[in-house]
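The instructor's notes for this session suggest beginning with a concrete chain rather than abstract definitions. Hand out the sequence below and ask the class to guess, before any prediction is shown, which regions might be ordered.
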Amino acid sequence: MAKRYERIADALRSEIRAGQRIPGERLPAETALAAQHKVSLPTIRQALGVLQVEGLVEKRHGHGNFVRKPRRPVERTNERHQWEKDRARKPVEVRQTTGATEHDTGLTINDLVFHAAYREAEAADELADIFKVPAGTRLLERLYRTSYREEDAPFALVRSYLVHDVVAGNPELLDDSNEPWPGGTQSQLHTIGIELDRITERVTARPPTVEETEDLGLTAGVSVIDLWKTSIDTTGRVVEVSHVILPGDRTEMVFTTPLDRWQS
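After discussion, reveal the predicted structure:
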């Protein structure tokens, strides 16, 4: 049997989804909701807490609880990597028309605000082990933040790592003013003769750090998806590693795995 706070949360959820309460609307005061449902304040706060975790309600301290405007959802599929590879060698005019974020969100380039910053870093033990290079090897660390123009928070927090001496073969790859690079990382690697053979992604979920909560605009109780992506070229060499933090309230991970047919 559903608990009292669950039934109250369900009633408010139904009102929001039916459009009876619109995005940005302030909900009645917690005391008023408690009186309406004939329950205690802690019970009302439990109900509102459920809706906050679901991303339907946000609590603004000192102002009350508001119906949250749905943020642009992201569908990240494993097929995106082949899509990017197919575009890597196409003319720049084709590559400029859309990128991975547009692919995942259905938005256009004009809908997005893109930020990239490069800096040099040294390979700590974990990254050195992945790249199979000595600890302390010079890396190029790239920080990416892409957001929807109508929203404040980015779709993800991305740190991408490349071995500096490898990408230095094309000086343009060391300059963040060339971002967003038409065609993305696979197109960048193509300029130095690198073709990817496969990409592995390790995915976990966890509570966000305080910094991640602020940067991604998360409400209380929302987890993040912690993704490590490793790109391997046709010689078996690791050429790029990305650490991607995705907000759990707007990201759907979709994995499609082709299966070999049985031989009759």
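Then share the key points. The domain at 4-67 is CATH 1.10.10.10 (Arc Repressor Mutant, subunit A). The mean pLDDT is 94.
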